[in-house]
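Standup notes, structure subgroup. Blocker cleared on the S-adenosylmethionine input:
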Amino acid sequence: MGVLVDGFGRRFRYLRLSITEVCNFRCTYCLPDGYRKTGAESFLPPDQCERVVRAFASLGVGKVRLTGGEPSVRRDLPEIIARTAGVPGVEKICLTTNGWNLERQAAAWRAAGLTNLNVSIDSLDPEGFRRITGHDRLASIVRGLDAAVALGVPSVKVNGVLLRGGVGRGFDAFAEFVRDRPVAVRFIELMRTNDTTAFFADQHVPGSVLTAWFAERGWTARPRGLDDGPAQEFSHPDYVGRIGLIAPYAPGFCDGCNRLRVTARGQLRLCLFGELGVDLRDLLEADEPDALQARIVRALIGKPAGHRLHEANSGDTRQLAQFGG
Ligand code: SAM
Ligand code: SF4
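Run returned:
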């Protein structure tokens, strides 16, 4: 079995596979005007998703996250989860969702083999949630999340984007949320994308506001695992759950990069904020696993040292729904 290592000695064990660009939410920081179709929607069918996963698994990847757009708008999501779970070597089958149909679908996803569920919840105030996402659905999403915990999904997490408006009281509300829930809430520092530069200028706050909040309240940092995502998680003896921070603007953030992305159209993206991608579609359609692996390994030579967000350069990323965040 080969391994995926880039020119900077970074080892890749984690694949984020986008399965659609379509989304039914209008998050202020991502798709404020909703999803707009660009070009034909020729997203990877389940068999080609499986071929992507097989190629990466044979190169040492054991963790696969399905994302989008909103992955659950695809009716064949349970089949894609099951095909991913059936690939030898893949131990963590993860999904990032806005949760709109979680309450109805949690059992089917779990039965298909889902092990790690991340649900995006940016505010625990129903009106704040509606303002950010365009949907009055918080209560159902929280019920869905609790259902997933009750079903025994081994890892259930919440993603919240760190917005100026949510600092302070927002942190306190999320801490209360994890007091008795075995759930990790992770705040993601808002990232600049080409379509949302004005929003970014208005709403970006550095991750240090959260680390200061942790320090004042006795939350302590936990060690990271080899295939963990980019979050630094914190725990507290009085709380069952954890709170974490993903701080892409922090120094050295890209040094520990362990993940690669494939878009819903079958392009390998070496960096979320890079440019262009390496097309894998022809080899996925032709089902040529050896050539596919070789192309992926070769492409890694071109992986840049890091993103250039500090220079207000977001590559060709208009918004994160485009490539899967
Ligand atoms: N639709 C799904 C969801 O919202 O969970 C999956 C795709 S979404 C692009 C993946 C993650 O990216 C979400 O947790 C979302 O909050 C986050 N995200 C989107 N745009 C972002 C931005 N500009 N900065 C930071 N996080 C962002
Ligand atoms: Fe859709 Fe997710 Fe983007 Fe919100 S963050 S608009 S749910 S893709």
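Discussed briefly. The mean pLDDT is 92.
Next: hand off to the docking folks.
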